[in-house]
Amino acid sequence: MKLWGGRFTKETNQLVHNFNASISFDQRFYRQDIEGSMAHVTMLCKQDILTEDEKDTIIAGLSGILEEIENGSLEIDGTYEDIHSFVEAHLISRIGDAGKKLHTGRSRNDQVALDMKLYTRNEVIETKELLKNLLSVLLRIMKENTHTFMPGFTHLQKAQPITLAHHMGAYFEMFKRDVSRLEDIYKRMNLSPIGSGALAGTTYPLDRAYTAKLLAFDGPTLNSMDSVADRDYLIEYLSAMATIMMHLSRFSEEVIIWNSNEYQFVDIDDSYSTGSSIMPQKKNPDIAELVRGKTGRVYGALMSLLTTMKGIPLAYNKDMQEDKELAFDAMDTTKGCIALFTGMLDTMKFNKETMENSAKNGFTNATDAADYLVNHGVPFRDAHGIIGQLVLLCIDKNCSLDQLPLSEYQAVSSVFQEDIYEAISLDTCVEKRNTIGAPGKQAMAEVIKIYEEYLK
């Protein structure tokens, strides 16, 4: 069944039908299509466009179709052009002429705009909840590791000592911003397009505000042309997902590095690892690598939709059917990656002693040694040069600054005294950094409290 056959005298070429049809992928939002139709006929009845009996008959028929699709007794038939025609055809076959009144006062253009928006809105909510789960795991790790020392890096070289809590807090901030982006998208997109018709509204006395209320929208859209041609919200959501995947990919890269034999900062749980078919010693960080790799799929979906939309005149054009397949794939990919990464992180073991030794042996306390000299009246530029000489000396002697004898310090500068060792201990280097956002225990306790309130 087609919803537009009256004008035509020939059947559609089968290849044209296959090329044009969308039911293979838009069947995904059968629930949104049916729920939107229920709200629409409820409004039509309120406006005396349908009778109470007609409304009840249509809703009962739609409810039966929904139930049967979900319990598997009604299979969505791929011979139909789209999910809208499938639902309407089955409704008419079940309840007769009353079913033919379902489409009163609407077009497939505003119908598909509604379905896509309802579906995307649900996806935004689900993505946000998955991020909240990830944030909860990050917060637990932070609470448990405010005194777990590790090197902080710049240029992938050891820079200054921090804590694991501080490092995890950086990702907490990233994913917290991702949540806020999703919340912003939800607010902007939560207006109902149904009732816009093909592009110019309708002569029927629809109550669009009432339909919007029934579907939990904040109100109706204010321009019928924009309503059927708008995919900004989907582009925004794809952009937000691309950013989420970028953050996950950065985190995955660090997990992969930390899992290497050279670092050994972490042990990934067996349930989130795989082995080699030829090398029995291997334990591979496949989840992290796949998350990193799948980021490109989500980027591709964003660029695809941006490219599709860039040359489309108002209002609806068939090009816009291309908003679905890659977007659906990006949604599935992003949600799956968040869930798997959260599980991997939650079961990961951190090798605290290895991390601390790495910080000690990487001259991460060199800046604090320079600050020691500055606090004793040495100009910073001179102090920088003195510590550089000492680092070279340590490299030559294969030792750390902590292990260098005081006599060696004093041979370079008489300013050094016994208290240099306390000044450059990891504990001192970290704990004296207590401005908000720094890794000191006091500062971290304040931030953790803020995060706990946020997650409540």
CATH top-level class of the largest domain: Mainly Alpha
Number of strands: 4
Strand order of the largest sheet: 1-2
- The computed structural class is mainly alpha
Radius of gyration based on Cα positions: 31 Å
Mean pLDDT across the residues is 94
Oligomer: single chain
- The number of distinct structural domains comes to 3
- Provide the β-strand percentage band: under 5%
Which of globular, elongated, flat, extended, rod-shaped describes the shape?
A: elongated
The CATH homologous superfamily name of the largest domain equals Fumarase/aspartase (Central domain)
What fold name goes in the CATH topology slot of the largest domain?
Fumarase C, Chain A, domain 2
Taking pLDDT < 50 over at least 5 consecutive residues as the criterion, the unreliable ranges are none
Terminal Cα span: 51 Å
Please tell me the CATH architecture of the largest domain by its name. Answer: Up-down Bundle
Secondary-structure element series: HHHHHHEEHHHHEHHEHHHHHHH
Q: What does the largest sheet look like?
A: 2 strands, antiparallel
